[in-house]
Write a structure and sequence with these properties.
This protein is mainly alpha-helical and about 450 residues long. The chain has a single domain, classed as Amino acid/polyamine transporter I (Up-down Bundle), CATH 1.20.1740. Helices cover about 80% and strands about 0% of the residues. It contains 21 helices and no strands. It is globular and about 60 Å long.
Length: about 450
C-alpha cells in the first residue's frame, strides 16, 4: 500500500498536512467577520465548544475509516463491505469539487491583492467590486493558483503534499505571529482585543449558535472526505486521538490568532466589526495605507501572502480527494489524474468567476437574489457538508459499529479502551453529532431554499 498509494513519512507531516487542509480562508478570511457579525467573544466561546465537543469526534471517525481501509472516500465504504453507503463518499467528493471550484476564485482574489499590495496600490480596497468583476485578471490568478495546487498534488503524498505542508505551515505561522505582534502595538488595539476576548453572553442567540456551528464544521474540513483521504495515508503506528487533537488545536489556534491579529487593526481604523467579507478585502488595505508607504507595503503584502498560503494548504487537500478516487478506483496514473481533474474543476469554476459582476445573469442567479458563487456556497458549504457529517457519524455508530471504530483507534493507542477519550468519541458520534448536524442540515435547507427561517 505505502509504495503504491504513498504514505506520510512522519506524524508531523500528517498533522501539518491535515491541519493545512483545515487551516484556510475559512480561518483567516471568514472567521473574523463571522466573529464580528456574531458579537465578538461570545461567538468565539460557542465556536470553540463546537470544535472540541462535536467536530473532534467526527474528525476521529473520518481518519479511522481512512486508515482502516487505505482507500479514498468512495472506496473506503466499499472496502468495509458496505457498498450501499459508497454514496456518502461520492457526496463528499462532489461537495469537495464544488467547494474547490469557487474557493479557487477567492484564492485568486487573495493572490491578486498580494500583487496589488506589493505595488503599493492601497486604493484596491475601494475598488473591490471592479477588481473581482475583472474576470480576465482574476481568471489568470485562479489559473496560476490551480496550477500551483496541481503541481504540489502531482508530487504525491511524501514529495508533494507532505513536503509542501512542511514549508507552507511554518511560513504561515511566522507571518501571522509577526502581524499579530505589530497589530497589538497600534492605538486602540486593546479595545479590539477586549471585543474579541471578553464575552457578553447576552449576545448568544440561536443565530449565533447556528453560525458558529457552520463555521466550526467548515473550517475543520469535515464531511467532504478530505480526512478520510488523508487518514488513508497514515501509518498504523500513529495515535489517531492525539493526531486529531493536534489538528483541531492547530486549526482552532490559527483561527483564534487570526482574530487577535485582525481586530486590533479594525479598531485602530474605527471600522465596523460587522463588516462581513469587507473586513479583509475592503477595510484592511485602507488600514495598511495609514501605516505609511514603506511599512504599509510590507505589512499589507505579508498579510495577503499569508491569505494566499492559507488558501493553498486547503486547495491541495480539496484536489487530493478526487485525485485519490480516480487513482484508486480507475487506476489512472496520478500525474494524469491530477492535471485532468484540476482542469475540469477550473472550468466548472468559471461561472463563479463570472458571477461577481461580469455576467448579470450569474450575479442574480435564477432570481435567487444572490450570485452564482454564493449559491454554490449555500449548496456545498451550508447544506452538503453537514449532511455528509451526519451520514458519516450515523454510519460509524450504527452501521460499522463503535466496537470496530474502537479497534482501529486502539492499534495506535493501547490505553484507549475505557478512557475519557473513548467516552467522548462514543457520545459525539452516537448522539451529539448526528442530532446537531441533522438539525443544522434541516434548518439550512428550509432557510436557504424555501425561505423558512426558524432561528
Amino acid at each position: 500500500m505505502g509504495a503504491q498509494r504513498g504514505e506520510f513519512q512522519s506524524r508531523l507531516g500528517f498533522i501539518l498536512a491535515a491541519a493545512g487542509s483545515a487551516v484556510g480562508l475559512g480561518n483567516i478570511w471568514k472567521f473574523p467577520f463571522e466573529v464580528g457579525n456574531g458579537g465578538g467573544a461570545a461567538f468565539v466561546v460557542v465556536y470553540l465548544t463546537f470544535c472540541f465537543l462535536l467536530c473532534f469526534p467526527v474528525m476521529v471517525a473520518e481518519i479511522a475509516i481512512g486508515r482502516k481501509t487505505n482507500k479514498n472516500p468512495v472506496g473506503a465504504f466499499k472496502d468495509l463491505g458496505y457498498h450501499n453507503w459508497a454514496f456518502v463518499g461520492m457526496l463528499g467528493l462532489f461537495c469537495g469539487v464544488l467547494i474547490l471550484s469557487f474557493y479557487n476564485v477567492v484564492a485568486g482574489w487573495a493572490f491578486g491583492y498580494f500583487l496589488e499590495m506589493v505595488s503599493g496600490n492601497f486604493a484596491i480596497g475601494k475598488q473591490f467590486g471592479p477588481f473581482t468583476s475583472n474576470w480576465v485578471k482574476i481568471g489568470l490568478y485562479g489559473l496560476l493558483f490551480m496550477g500551483t495546487t496541481a503541481f504540489i498534488v502531482s508530487g504525491g503524498v511524501k514529495d508533494g503534499i507532505e513536503r509542501a505542508a512542511k514549508i507552507l505551515m511554518p511560513s504561515l505561522l511566522a507571518i501571522i505571529f509577526f502581524l499579530l505582534i505589530y497589530a497589538t502595538t497600534l492605538p486602540n488595539a486593546m479595545k479590539g482585543l477586549e471585543f474579541y476576548l471578553v464575552p457578553d453572553f447576552s449576545k448568544i442567540t440561536p443565530s449565533v449558535i447556528y453560525s458558529a456551528l457552520g463555521q466550526a464544521f467548515f473550517s475543520l474540513s469535515l464531511g467532504m472526505g478530505a480526512l478520510i483521504t488523508y487518514g488513508s495515508y497514515v501509518s498504523k503506528r500513529e495515535n489517531i486521538i492525539t493526531s486529531a487533537a493536534m489538528i483541531t488545536l492547530a486549526d482552532v489556534g490559527i483561527a483564534f490568532i487570526a482574530g487577535l491579529m485582525i481586530f486590533p487593526f479594525v479598531f485602530y481604523q474605527g471600522a465596523d466589526t460587522a463588516g462581513g467579507a469587507g473586513l479583509i478585502f475592503t477595510v484592511l488595505p485602507e488600514i495598511f495605507e495609514t501605516l505609511g508607504p514603506t511599512l504599509g507595503v510590507i505589512i499589507g503584502s505579508l498579510f495577503f501572502l499569508l491569505l494566499s498560503f492559507a488558501a493553498l494548504t486547503s486547495t491541495v487537500s480539496l484536489l487530493e480527494v478526487p485525485v485519490s478516487y480516480v487513482v484508486d478506483e480507475h487506476e489512472i496514473p496520478r500525474n494524469k489524474a491530477v492535471w485532468m481533474i484540476a482542469g475540469f474543476i477550473f472550468v466548472i469554476g468559471i461561472p463563479s468567476l463570472l458571477a461577481n459582476g461580469a455576467v448579470p445573469m450569474l450575479t442574480n442567479f435564477i432570481d435567487t437574489g444572490v450570485d452564482f458563487m454564493t449559491w454554490v456556497q449555500f449548496v456545498a458549504n451550508d447544506s452538503l457538508l453537514p449532511l455528509g457529517g451526519f451520514l458519516i457519524t450515523v454510519f460509524t455508530a450504527y452501521v460499522w459499529k463503535k466496537h470496530n471504530l474502537d479497534e482501529e483507534i486502539s492499534i495506535g493507542y493501547p490505553g484507549y479502551e475505557g478512557s475519557f477519550a473513548q467516552k467522548l468519541i462514543h457520545f459525539g458520534v452516537s448522539y451529539l453529532a448526528p442530532v446537531i448536524l441533522g438539525i443544522l442540515f434541516i434548518l439550512t435547507v428550509l432557510n436557504r431554499f424555501f425561505g423558512v427561517s426558524l432561528i
